[in-house]
Fold:
Amino acid sequence: MNFKIIEKNIISKENKIENCEDKIVYNNYFTCIIDGATTKSSVLYDNKKSGLLVSEILGKAVLNLEKTTSLSQAIDIFTKSMSDYYTINSLLENVKNNPLNRLTASIVIYSSYYNQIWMIGDCQCMVDNKLHTNNKLIDKLLSETRAFYITKELIAGKTIDYLREFDTGREFILPLLISQSSFQNIRFDSEYSYCVVDGFPINISQVKVIETKNSKSIILASDGYPKLFNTLNETETYLSYILENDPLCYNLYKSTKGKNINMISFDDRAYLRLEINIVHLADSTNNEDDGNK
Structure:
């Protein structure tokens, strides 16, 4: 292990860690944040929402990665772990024909052996103060569309509190959010296509690779944070500013969803700050999925 965990944080938008679809996982060679996609389907798996289950499946897969596991090998292992779940539970044909029902997740993972960060899907990281994101074009378009619709609703007399309880902007874009699943991991050449981990082949060219050789500090985070800063406190402070001044997430920070009146944030969030090139006398394997540090 050539890294030391300086800060970590994982919080559920519902303030119930057992429902959190984000997960922090690390062993001696890999450190990652898994972000299970917010379900847009009513289908439950083992009485769990798909985002929660997929983070659990991938968490186990990450812990079993070997030191020299490459990006392409990791992708194959992640994909197989989910494909196996479909097969065992007789779901393969259903999810093949209905992408909306797939277990879907984004991962940002640091390999200490290769000195790289691999970004599969929506996630973010910071390497020595430089921010890296991997946002989807479709999310930007739908966030703008939702912002337009919410603005129209406010002009018409709807209140922010009303829209926090009944997010008509989210309802307006929901058919398109559902449709966008047809673009995940497709071979069709389109600016709207994107990669995720969903049990089907991933276009490795869409995986963003960040070199970290000679880097001293790495931050990995899910997209539950609007913006990353050098410390957890700064990152949380900025999130609090957004939630206080733009709880609908349509103005200062445009998103496909806002802070529901019954939630503590617009999304689950996870943050992990590492110090690199630390030598440890003994290795250990850990799996963190709740609590703050």
Remarks:
- Residues 3-287 form a domain with the Phosphatase 2c; domain 1 fold (CATH 3.60.40.10).
- Helices lie at 50-63, 71-88, 92-97, 137-155, 160-165, 168-179, 232-245.
